[in-house]
Amino acid sequence: MEPKNNKKTIRAWAFFDWANSAYNLVITSTIFPAYYVAITANAKTGDRVSFFGHSFINTALSNYALAAAYLVMVILLPILTSIADYRGNKKIFMRAFTWLGSLACCALFLFDINNLEFGIICFALAAIGYSGGFVFYNSYLPEIATFDMQDSVSAKGFTYGYIGSVILQVICLIFVLSPKTFHLTSGSAAQLSFLLVGLWWIGFSHIPFSVLPKGSPNAVPRHSNIIKGGFIELGHVFNKVKAMPLLKRFLPAFFFYSMGVQTIMLVAAGFGAKVLHMDTPGLITIILIIQLVAIGGATLMSKLSGIYGNITVLAGVVVIWIGACVGAYFTTTVTEFYILAIIVGIVMGGIQSLSRSTYSKYLPQDIPDTASFFSFYDVTEKLAIVGGMASFAYIEELTGSMRNSALALCGFFILGLILLLSLLKAEKKMSER
User: Fold this and answer.
1) Could you give the 3-state DSSP secondary structure of residue 41?
2) Contact (Cβ atoms closer than 8 angstroms) between residue 87 and residue 119
3) What does each of the 433 residues of the chain score in pLDDT, given as a tens digit?
4) Which of 56, 166, 372, 391 is the most buried (most CB within 10 A)?
5) Are 83 and 230 in contact (CB under 8 A)?
6) Which of 427, 430, 420 is nearest to 316 (CA)?
7) Does residue 421 belong to any structural domain of this protein?
8) Contacting residues for 365 by C-beta, under 8 A, at least 6 apart
9) The domain containing residue 335 runs over which residues?
10) Are 179 and 189 in contact, with CB atoms under 8 Å apart?
11) How far apart are CA 174 and CA 167, in angstroms?
12) Is residue 2 in a domain?
């Protein structure tokens, strides 16, 4: 095993975020939602679409698709990470999910209103590829960085992700703003963006694939079959987590505030396009602002955590997220949405980066089965996304308003805040002993 804190390895690791964050920005956050809302709006049916014979509100359908994709990952990840830990080949799975996601993005180049089912399926497959690759990427953190460096290395990954995705977003913006210059229509410019994301994703992923270690095998013999063994391994991790007083308090808090954070990140563009009637250039601009602010936000939160501690900073950030949900409910103008975007940008990168490094720091250091422990972390996050997205979609279908869905997310954040404050008390008691 190579020494930790190797600059070349850390830089290569961060480039995986550079590669796949373009998916998160273009596909889930800006161009796809705007394109999808535009092509599914119909004078006769309003905002309702037919998916394999069933009628849905258009944005609710895409949110249900994401929830289903993450539910698939909840089922698959325990099995795959168990194999990865046992055989020490987590980079193979990281590569496989990357190819799946990038090819699904390329296939969205063919998506239009005449093949809605095809587009939604590719949209879900891209989400599976993105989330599947990320769990193995996350599991490298304690393997490549020492305990004292994990906050800054985690923040470095997110910073690379924001920079890389912004660069590709600007390239896509050029095509979207001036499609006629390139002999395109507004629709084909969006479709070209989907193709560029897939090529960018797989292209830059070769940097970490060529540098990162393949993973360290866990020599403990397995007597159960692969499928059963994965869930047994998850059960073993759960039992270990129960014996860790701080980690077992952190995960429930992480689960509830992630229901809010991840949902907001995934539905923000759809909210802007549908509720505020923002066009694609406007959505791209606002998301670019969020990304640029988030670069500083991730670094700022890392530094603040060194002064005040991770949990104190996380609690403060969750309070800001609660305010953002209330703000979204009352937002009626594009200017107000821009202000809200700046606030969200400051806390978006910070809460993700700090959550990952806090979990990593609560783990026993130098454990061989990091993929299984991070599988547990990612299963928790994916379940939060499933619950958050399904709740958001259901409330919109029930009430007919995305504003009500946004306001309801406050409840998840409040539960997360209460649990974080409880964890903070437990930390102080342990430090006093």
Assistant:
1) coil
2) no
3) 567 888 999 999 999 999 998 898 788 878 898 899 889 887 577 788 989 989 999 989 999 999 999 999 888 877 777 676 666 677 888 899 999 999 999 999 999 989 999 999 999 999 999 988 887 888 788 888 887 888 788 888 878 988 898 899 889 888 988 899 999 988 899 999 999 999 999 999 999 999 988 766 554 545 456 566 667 767 777 888 888 888 889 999 999 999 998 888 788 878 888 888 888 778 777 777 877 787 778 788 888 888 998 999 999 999 999 999 999 999 999 889 889 988 888 888 778 878 888 888 888 766 655 667 777 787 888 899 899 999 999 999 899 889 999 999 999 999 999 999 999 998 888 777 6
4) 372
5) yes
6) 420
7) yes
8) 142, 146, 147
9) 7-432
10) yes
11) 11
12) no
Q: What's the one-letter identity of residue 386?
A: V
- CATH number, position 191: 1.20.1250.20
Q: Which residues sit opposite 49 in a β-bridge?
A: 56
- Show the tokens assigned to 56: 């849905």
| Residue the block writes with tokens 């689960």 | 255
Q: Supply the DSSP symbol for 217.
A: P
Q: Read out DSSP for 171-194?
A: HHHHHHH-GGGGT--HHHHHHHHH
Count up the domains in the chain and report the number.
Answer: 1
Which residue's structure tokens are 């008691």? Answer: 429
